[in-house]
Write a structure and sequence with these properties.
The protein is 44% helix and 14% strand. By secondary structure, the protein is α/β, with parallel strands linked by helices. Helix 12 (257-267) crosses helix 15, helix 14 crosses helix 15 (309-330) and helix 18 packs across helix 22 (447-460).
């Protein structure tokens, strides 16, 4: 991208009064301006307003290289990518040079030769800030040549240069990121000997390539990301390198349910058509987020690995898709999400959690179902009294009519793909259910969502029996189920 109205030669650039500055000063100055104006520095980053983002701003003001340390799915890479918003929109570079050389402060031999040859007529290009971001995923196969550079025998032969001439060097990613933000994701996965190659660049400003020791004061802001799990499982950040990274900033998962829901809603890929046709009651959104929150505290899930925010995001997408599929099967125009639709969310959960030994014994599907059941129970008890702490008489026990209904051998079957009218008719036919929901001030538009929640929660709390049958869920008297099992034996 070229800014044509800017000076296009070295002479015109000097006449314009342009003054160069380091990228760390550039970030600092632009941050100061944005803070004074009250501008949003990291748009779309939610839940970090009082923790991570102030630490990032302090690190930028201090001209630091940064390590973002946190479990997966905590927006580390997104924060790093948004740093480009604090760069100048355009900067001048010597045209045709590999290292983005500043015309007023050339770094490479190539740029110096061009300036010496052409003087004020040296052509200038303008580099957009989006081009000044370089990202590399650290993998075990990354080499020093990839990051720093190597001798290029083809260049030596083409230019007829001896290997002692520094012009035979092919620079790696880091030198070519001069005057840019350079991000290394999953730093502990980088082999220790490769991490060593970063020492001088971070501290002394020189590089070593195949016997060449070059004083190359690269102007780079380094941002590293890492998962604490990596320190013990796959690799580690070697101590001398950590010592050279000035600011280590700890990220975290959302502190509240509302923030978690806002992140999921913002990131989920839901089409406008899906939003128009499908209503997701707030109670269902709460259940979705509570699954992820419960997973982070579950005895079956490895807490060192973490549970990514991507679990909730993909789960919401699947929730919409489950309801959409039901619309298509039934030929309906619209619908409301049900708890039964959460069975379609299971694939989004099982691939996002790492299980400990006890969890492996249970199995991914069983753990996912337990997390859903725990979320249902918790949400139910936020609105309704615990059925184990109420009286047994129907006039004092809010669940008395329901208990009597199921103890009288009645069975309620909810078809997973039932039409809206059939679904509501089935719930309306359960005595005492509408009265219970109405007694606890449930809004009319949410009454069926809570009716279904009550049945599932009573099953989780062992007041009602529940069987997951093919394409339907059956609720019945739990004692009858036990006696039936005994009869089978």
């Amino acid at each position: 991208m070229i800014k044509t109205q800017q000076p296009n030669t070295f002479g015109k650039l000097k006449e314009s009064g342009y003054q160069s500055r380091s990228i760390k000063d550039e970030l600092r100055d632009n941050l100061i301006t944005s803070l004074k104006k009250g501008e949003e520095i990291f748009p779309g980053i939610l839940g970090f307003d009082d923790t991570v983002l102030p630490d990032m701003e302090r690190a930028i003001l201090s001209r630091h290289n940064i390590l973002l340390l946190g479990l997966r799915g905590q927006a580390k890479t997104r924060i790093a990518r948004q740093l480009t918003g604090l760069l100048d929109e355009f900067i001048p570079i010597v045209a045709g040079c590999a290292l983005n050389d500043d015309p007023l402060n050339p770094l490479s031999r190539e740029a110096k030769d061009i300036l010496e040859e052409h003087g004020d007529d040296t052509p200038i290009e303008w580099m957009h800030r989006d081009q000044r971001y370089v990202e590399k995923l650290a993998t075990p196969d990354v080499s020093v040549a990839d990051l720093i550079g190597d001798v290029d025998p083809i260049k030596a032969a083409t230019l007829k240069l001896p290997y002692s001439d520094e012009r035979v060097i092919h620079f790696g990613l880091i030198p070519r990121a001069h005057r840019s933000i350079f991000v290394i994701n999953e730093l502990p996965d980088l082999q220790a000997r490769i991490q060593v190659s970063l020492f001088n660049i971070l501290q002394e400003g020189d590089i070593q390539i195949r016997g060449f020791k070059m004083r190359l004061p690269l102007d780079i802001v380094f941002v590293f990301t890492a998962n604490p799990e990596d320190y013990t499982n796959r690799g580690s950040i070697i101590t001398p390198l950590k010592d050279r990274i000035e600011s280590q900033i700890l990220t975290h998962y959302p502190d509240t349910l509302d923030i978690a829901k806002a992140i999921t809603s913002q990131e989920a890929n839901i089409s406008e058509l899906q939003k128009e046709k499908i209503t997701v009651p707030e109670v269902m959104r709460d259940l979705l987020e509570m699954i992820a929150i419960n997973a982070r505290d579950s005895e079956f899930v490895d807490d060192r690995s973490g549970v990514s925010a991507r679990l909730s995001i993909t789960a919401l997408e699947n929730l919409y898709s489950s309801a959409e599929r039901r619309i298509l099967l039934n030929g309906e125009e619209s619908t409301t999400v049900r708890i039964a639709d959460f069975w379609g969310v299971i694939p989004a959960i099982t691939g996002k959690i790492e299980l400990v030994y006890e969890g492996e014994q249970e199995g991914h599907y069983s753990v996912a179902m337990k997390l859903l059941g725990q979320a249902i129970s918790t949400k139910f008890l936020e609105k309704f009294p615990h059925p184990g702490k109420t009286g047994n008489e129907s006039d004092t026990d809010p669940y008395g009519i329901l208990r009597a209904f199921f103890s009288d051998s009645n069975v309620v079957e909810l078809e997973n793909d039932a039409t809206d009218s059939d679904f509501r008719a089935t719930l309306d036919a359960v005595p005492g259910l509408a009265k219970l929901v109405k007694a606890y001030d449930i809004e009319d538009e949410d009454c069926y969502a809570f009716k279904e929640l009550v049945l599932h929660a009573l099953a989780e709390l062992e007041v009602v029996g529940k069987d997951l049958l093919q394409q339907r869920i059956s609720f019945s008297d739990p004692l009858a189920d036990i006696l039936g099992d005994l009869d089978l034996e």
